[in-house]
Amino acid sequence: MPPPPATGCRSAPVLKERGQHEVFCGLTGIVWLHRKMQDAFFLVVGSRTCAHLLQSAAGVMIFAEPRFGTAILEEQDLAGLADAQEELDREVARLLARRPDIRQLFLVGSCPSEVIKLDLAKAAQRLSARHAPHVRVLNYSGSGIETTFTQGEDACLAAMVPQLPEKSARELLLVGALPDVVEDQALRLLSDLGIGPVRCLPARRAEDMPLVGPDTVFALTQPFLGDTHAALERRGARHIPAPFPFGEEGTTEWLAALAREFDVPAGRFEQVTAAPRARARRAVAAAAETLAGRSVFFFPDSQLEIPLARFLTRECGMEAIEIGTPYLHKALMGPDLDLIAPGPNLSEGQDVDRQLDRLRAARPDLTVCGLGLANPLEAEGLATKWAIELVFTPVHLYEQVGDLAQLFARPLRRRDLLKLEAAE
Ligand code: SF4
């Protein structure tokens, strides 16, 4: 691993674009949130389009009783002819009578519910009062206008923060919905380091939701949680800034920041992290053979772009040409930006046509982008990686480093093979 650059990209100029977006909406987050929160239900208040989006994004992944659904706003609702609030109350009463396992109900706003200005905050308050204490009803927006698909999780967690009970005890809060297997690895590493007590937001079950107060310190596991970060700070909790735990270096630096906060002796840190670090380095080395010396271009999509560019340039030997991100939150991204050597073009927001022009001029070896752009770019002979896969695949922490690197190496290997076949 190269030493950290003398100056990183934290103060590099950022190209700010405010044009057309090519992204999925925040409803997509329900696909991973409903798997994480085992007694929650996500009720999208939307149209048939919203229902179809959810079904196609999540359809093949449902193995158990679904924990989400759509309350369809019909034409008379949209035309203001029916009382949508009364309809919603009836729908919720039916759902909760049928599903006594539900302890948290999220009313998720959509473009249609926002167009008719359906007040879901009021509905959540009213329904919470009606169904308390067994069910807590919250609301957030997953609407697609001017958002990215990871904002749904941020909006959901930010909606939960004001409801968390107050407590003044020194605790570490891990914030972000990690797959259970990865969360367990994080909890084991922190326990081996002697850091605790540790709680998670979101918790797997309503009864395990964390308490929060001025003595809470929190670490983000996902870079797209700007609103949740702000909501926790409003409750007096303090953020521990660190690079995000992607790759061996990111994971080590993330753990090191927590270890400093909790005064973990250097010897103990070394003892706990040495073996998984070595495993992670070996796993990256296998993929880096394909990735080293190749160039990568990020379109703004998942909000994971900056930490992943740090991982690919520093651990896999790639060159980043452009790192596009929907939002650049310096308080969250600063530690990752510090580790990226100057050179890549940093852009925030999107003007898709202008960005496509820059991409075609640069012709990178790999383009990380949304599903809508990937197929046409493949047809133009460019190798692509779907950004959404990075959120659906476990990629955090040491044991997933090899899988993370392979996600980027695979499309390059496929293209190399196609070139070989064409040459024969
Ligand atoms: S919330 Fe908006 S963008 Fe998302 S599926 Fe519904 S209509 Fe489409």
From TrEMBL:
Pfam families: Oxidored_nitro. Its EC number is 1.3.7.7. It comes from the Bacteria. The keyword Transport does not apply. [4Fe-4S] cluster binds at residues 25, 50, 111. It catalyses: chlorophyllide a + oxidized 2[4Fe-4S]-[ferredoxin] + 2 ADP + 2 phosphate = protochlorophyllide a + reduced 2[4Fe-4S]-[ferredoxin] + 2 ATP + 2 H2O. Residues 25-409 form the Nitrogenase/oxidoreductase component domain. GO terms for biological process: light-independent bacteriochlorophyll biosynthetic process; photosynthesis, dark reaction. Binds 1 [4Fe-4S] cluster per heterodimer. The cluster is bound at the heterodimer interface by residues from both subunits. Belongs to the BchN/ChlN family. This is Light-independent protochlorophyllide reductase subunit N. It comes from Tranquillimonas alkanivorans.
